[in-house]
Design a protein that fits this description.
By secondary structure, the protein is α+β, with helices and mostly antiparallel strands. The chain folds into 3 domains: about 5-105, Rossmann fold (3-Layer(aba) Sandwich), CATH 3.40.50; about 130-200, 2-Layer Sandwich (Dna Ligase, domain 1), CATH 3.30.1490; about 205-445, ATP-grasp fold, B domain (D-amino Acid Aminotransferase, Chain A, domain 1). Helices cover about 35% and strands about 25% of the residues. The protein has helices spanning about 10-25, 40-45, 65-70, 90-95, 105-115, 115-125, 140-150, 175-190, 250-265, 295-305, 305-315, 395-405, 415-425, 425-430, 440-465; strands spanning about 5, 25-35, 45-50, 75-80, 100, 155-165, 165-170, 195-200, 205-215, 220-235, 235-240, 270-280, 280-290, 330-340, 350, 355, 365-370, 375, 385-390, 410. The strands form 5 sheets. Strands 13-12-9-10-11-14-19-17 form an 8-stranded antiparallel sheet. Strands 3-2-1-4-5 form a 5-stranded parallel sheet. Strand 6 (about 155-165) and strand 7 (about 165-170) form a beta hairpin.
């Protein structure tokens, strides 16, 4: 087993990994930028190393600086968390070349699943159902029109190296395909340095469902059920739950076994998540995330497993300590991502935390590095906390989440807490009757209503002045 692990990340996920290390008797090393020198993940680590200025490119994305920090602190493993270098195959290879263990899958799987065209081809060959579309990159406008005609409109044109909705366009006709092909390619080239695009059938109102898997270096693979991540804004998840209200046990077992069989076939090890669009009882592969997910706590809450602990054990060469028949699911769990942003305009809201109180009570978990007096830097992602609850039933889970959101106090900045409170009061969410379009439509209605109320108030103010 490892004696010291360097955590190549920041914020709540760095703290999460530290906790697993401490419970396993493993020392931890925190790396940090100058902007994060007072952060909680730095304060609580056994050792810390400053690796650069606030810019992520010069610190958390600086491969040489991270590996140098691991070398000088004699760390025998690096855990990348999520984001930053977590799915960077070149970094994983560099780590191995320095005689340090990378706590994640083999670099070949990072490379294969990091390219969406190759990932789709690999998934299809491994027996995972895929959305009808191009077999690879679409090389010309004429080819794009031909494929769209064959699979039917509307279609989705996507960047092969894309993410977060960039390089992604919907086309409902031949003319729109021509325009979308050029626009998506140009956008992808600017954002990712790769203008390649591919095409898929566009699904109307699907749900976004992902299957959590764990594999070891001995050929063992298990799935830990699904997470429903359909509540999204601009392709960014804000709320997750398990089990999905859309699936039954039979469907869960069926898709779980398909995914496990595919992972065994490709020899996948460590944690990973296979993501699907689900519509009319059918699953369609989107992509695979070859890392720990932001929303992994909901799976931990219902299975009782520590995914980070399992990642570390697998990376150390140990077998999974359980088989599929040992995995059980207790009740329901939900996670709200708390972002430092205006809940109406979504403008970032970094700044000083002047007051902080985390909710507590039965089956309530908060993953966060916040504390009163901490200054949230403007240089990184707006995610500042994750609020997770568990309940025996979905109804109990919703009520517990409402109560926990009401208790959560983060003063000094704006957060997405009011948005979550509004969403969880909606009948569609209470009933579990939502899809990947629901949240944006809800936000649009809210914004229009707010604009109308503001206009009415101004008109009333004008009338009052005239009187």
């Amino acid at each position: 087993m490892f004696e010291k692990i360097l955590i190549a990340n920041r914020g709540e996920i760095a703290l999460r990994i530290q906790r697993a290390c401490r419970e396993m008797g493993i020392k931890s090393v925190a790396v940090h930028s100058t902007a994060d020198s007072e952060a909680m993940h730095v304060r609580l680590a056994d050792e810390s190393v400053c690796i650069g200025p606030p810019s992520a490119r010069e610190s958390y994305l600086n491969k040489a600086a991270v590996i140098s920090a691991a070398t000088i602190t004699h760390a025998d493993a690096i855990h990348p968390g999520y984001g930053f270098l977590s799915e960077n195959a070149e970094f994983a290879e560099m780590v191995a070349d320095h005689g340090i263990a990378f706590i994640g899958p083999d670099p070949k799987h990072l490379r294969t699943m990091g390219d969406k065209v190759t990932a789709k081809k690999t998934a299809k060959e491994a027996g995972i159902p895929c959305v009808p579309g191009s077999d690879g990159a679409v090389e010309s406008v004429d080819m794009a029109v031909e494929i769209a005609d064959s699979i039917g409109y509307p279609v989705l044109i996507k960047a092969t190296a894309g993410g977060g909705g960039r390089g992604m366009k919907v086309a409902k006709s031949r003319d729109e395909v021509r325009e979308a092909f050029m626009t998506a390619g140009t956008e992808a080239k600017a954002a990712f340095g790769n203008g390649e695009v591919y095409m898929e059938k566009y699904l109307g109102r699907p749900r976004h469902i992902e299957i959590q898997v764990l594999g070891d270096k001995h050929g063992n693979v298990v799935h830990l059920g699904e997470r429903d991540c359909s509540l999204q804004r601009r392709h960014q998840k804000i709320f997750e739950e398990t089990p999905s209200p859309a699936l039954n046990a039979g469907q869960r077992d069926e898709i779980g076994e398909i995914v496990c069989k595919a992972m065994r076939k490709i020899g996948y090890d460590n944690a990973g998540t296979v993501e699907f669009l689900y519509e009319d009882g059918k699953f369609y592969f989107i992509e695979m995330n070859t890392r720990l997910q932001v929303e992994h706590p909901v799976t931990e809450m219902v299975t009782g497993l520590d995914l980070v602990r399992e990642q570390i054990r697998v990376a150390a060469g140990l077998e999974l300590g359980f088989s599929q028949k040992d995995v059980t699911f207790e009740g329901c769990s939900m996670e709200c991502r708390i972002n430092a942003e205006n809940p109406r305009t979504f403008a970032p809201s970094p700044g000083l935390i002047t007051g902080y109180h985390a909710p507590g009570g039965r089956r309530v978990r908060v993953d966060s590095g916040l504390f009163s007096g901490f200054k949230i830097p403007p240089n990184y992602d707006s995610l500042i906390a994750k609020l997770i609850v568990q309940g025996s039933t979905r109804q109990e889970c919703v009520m517990r989440m409402r109560r926990a959101l009401h208790e959560y106090v983060i003063d000094g900045i704006e957060t997405s807490i009011p948005l979550h409170m509004a969403v969880l009061n909606e009948p569609a969410i209470m009933d579990g009757n939502y899809d990947i379009r629901w949240l944006e439509e809800f936000i649009d209605r809210q914004q229009k209503q707010a604009a109308a109320e503001e206009k009415l108030a101004k008109n009333e103010e004008k009338l009052a002045k005239k009187k």
